[in-house]
Amino acid sequence: MTAIRPAQPGQTLAEIDTPALVIDLDAFERNIATLTKSLVGRSVRVRAHAKTHKCPEIALRQIAAGAVGVCCQKVSEAEAMVEGGVGDVLVSNEVVGAQKLARLARLAKRARIGICVDDPAQVAALGDAVAAEGAQIDVYVEIDVGARRCGVAPGEPALALARKIVATPGLHFMGLQAYQGSAQHVRTMADRRAKIDAAIEAARSTRALIVANGIACPIVTGAGSGSFMFEAASGVYDELQPGSYIFMDADYARNEWAPPLPRFEHSLFVLATVMSRPVPERIVVDAGLKASSIDSGLPTVWNRPGLEFTRASDEHGVIEAKPGTLAPALGEKLLLVPGHCDPTVNLYDWYVCVRGGMQIDSSGGKVEALWPITARGALT
Fold first, then answer.
1. Which SS3 state, helix, strand or coil, does residue 96 take?
2. Are strands 350-355 and 20-24 parallel, antiparallel or unpaired?
3. Which of 13, 180, 226, 275 pairs with 242 at a CA distance of 20 to 30 A?
């Protein structure tokens, strides 16, 4: 982590050095409250996904709002969360390799740790690791509910894995990981709902089979920001794993949103400075590929109609001004909404947290705090 901070508390947006990753704290807190309110009366709990933010400070705020803990995708992410004070972490992913498993087993002696498996060899290796450390760990069988990524097939293959987990000392079978990730950005509500309905049925039938064979299956966990109310209403899912809801990005904004799904606000921005104005209709900012991920599309320019971010190179972002648009001046700052929040976060060391509005003038908000992105680059 760099020692150079892009801002200091009390500064305005215009005074922040760029590129900078900025959180609108008011919108961020409303998003957390919106999720909590949407689940009132539902017999489900939230396990917020920390792969989105990689920041224990945010995780603790989610837990304070009612989450039971967080998910991570990597052992190193889980280590950062536990070191930051989080006591309950599910690595909602498969982990392979003796070094990683040994670290996970050691971590399980400091906090409640869960992990997913989809192969008998993973169960055996995990059993060896916890035995060597004298640890215990929660284990979930991941089933493929339509994403075609990780996960054993629903039904009998999942039952066979559950039996192996139950028979392995130090491993506690907790249930099923059933996340339909490919459905989260399906644009129409009807098509997204259809994919989630298929996932719900796969989880329902697999849990019933496991229970019918005398194995308790206390938790079915999964769901994401684009679908979580469908899983919440299913009567099958016990735990929800939304992540992007705290920030929202340009790609999620392209989804159709309607009840029962609540609408979340954009709260995460890349602040950029106009570094070149070679011709009147072309604006170049200092935020390119190394400042904002474009795997899910280019960023959008926030609250500046007529300006379109059209292309990016390593250190440059090119914005085109439509005819008749008042183009920003050299040195002026612009807010960009990232195309995909998760990998954009991984490009930065700090969140610059602003309270009181996102106007880039004297009427706008002020920097309230800087939060370290502790798990940035946590890939192992």
1. coil
2. parallel
3. 13
- Whether 106 is in a domain gets the answer yes
Tokens describing residue 325: 């648009």
- Specify the pLDDT at position 2: 62
Of 188, 213, 248, which residue sits at a domain end? 248
CA dihedral over 365, 366, 371, 376, signed as positive or negative: positive
What pLDDT digit, counting tens, does each position of 113-169 carry?
999 999 999 999 999 999 999 999 999 999 999 999 999 999 999 999 999 999 999
In this structure, what token pair is assigned to residue 242?
């939304």
- In 3-state terms, what secondary structure has residue 116? strand
The reported pTM is 0.95
Residues 39 and 152 in one domain: yes
The helix or strand, by DSSP H or E, that contains position 285, with its residue range, turns out to be strand 282-285
**Domain span at residue 172?**
27-248
- CA-nearest of 304, 177, 173 to 237 is 177
Rounded to a whole number of angstroms, the distance between the first and last alpha carbons of the chain is 17
Residues 291-332 have pLDDT tens digits of 999 999 999 999 999 999 999 999 999 999 999 998 999 999
What is the token pair recorded at 201? 């049925």
Q: Which helix (H) or strand (E) holds 71?
A: strand 69-72
3-state secondary structure of 253: helix
CATH of the domain at 184: 3.20.20.10
341 and 222 belong to one structural domain: no
Counting Cβ atoms within 10 Å, is residue 332 exposed (0-12), middle (13-18) or buried (19+)? middle
> What is the rounded CA–CA span in Å between residue 218 and residue 207?
9
CATH number reported for the structural domain that contains residue 356 in this entry: 2.40.37.20
Instruction: Tell me the C-alpha distance between 38 and 35, whole Å.
Output: 5
Examine the domain organization and report whether 280 and 236 are in the same domain. no
